[in-house]
Specification:
Length: about 200
């Protein structure tokens, strides 16, 4: 299996690139943010809980998020692999993911970390907020809080993969297709090594 963590701050382009990677490599895309938004839309209990954190730009608690992620993985017993988008976002989540994948006799092959500077992120998110209807993308204070949360709680997860030799930084600025090329090159290197 080929399991990839697509990493980066809010607005780095994880969702956009995931769609293209899924198409090229035939992987399953798992976005915890998408699962939360689906539940918010359908006003489930999980949705109500998630909304109370997301609207402030904070993380949904680990125990809730980890359970959701496991449930999503279990829905795809047969697949070439997964793209994890927006997960893990804490060290606790990273450890839980490793342990869980171990029980399935698989593991993360690589973390691709999109690098984009903060002003560019805010600009992109405010533009996205205009037509996405995402409440967390319309208020600059909430956007800045999400970026702070990323810097304080999430970026450390990269170190977890770095010590395993799985971390690859990718320049996340430029045209969508150029960034996709960079991601594809890193993945193909890994595929080359394993075959
Ligand atoms: P973005 O990358 O633009 O912030 P996401 O769709 O990945 O968008 O996440 C939206 C929100 O959902 C996050 O700000 C956070 O509140 C919540 N969320 C998503 N994934 C996680 C996670 N793995 N752990 C905790 N909260 C999460």
């Amino acid at each position: 299996m080929l399991n990839i963590v697509l990493f980066g701050p809010p607005g780095a382009g994880k969702g956009t690139q995931s769609v293209k990677l899924v198409e090229k490599f035939g992987l399953v895309h798992l976005s915890t943010g998408d699962v939360f938004r689906y539940n918010i839309k359908h006003e489930t209990e999980l949705g109500k809980l998630a909304k109370s954190f997301i609207d402030k730009g904070n993380l949904v608690p680990d125990e809730v998020t980890i359970d959701i992620l496991k449930r999503e993985v279990e829905k795809h017993p047969i697949t070439k692999g997964f793209i994890f988008d927006g997960f893990p976002r804490t060290i606790t989540q990273a450890i839980a993911l490793d342990t869980f994948l171990n029980t399935k006799n698989t593991s993360i092959a690589l973390m691709l970390a999109l690098q984009v500077d903060e002003n560019e992120l805010v600009k992109r998110l405010l533009i996205r907020g205009k037509d996405s209807g995402r409440a967390d993308d319309t208020d600059e204070r909430i956007i800045r809080n999400r970026i702070n949360v990323y810097n304080e709680q999430t970026s450390v997860a990269a170190e977890f993969y770095n010590t395993q030799g799985k971390y690859h930084a990718i320049n996340g600025t430029g045209k969508v297709d150029e960034i996709f090329e960079r991601l594809t090159e890193s993945i193909e290197q890994i595929l080359g090594k394993s075959s």
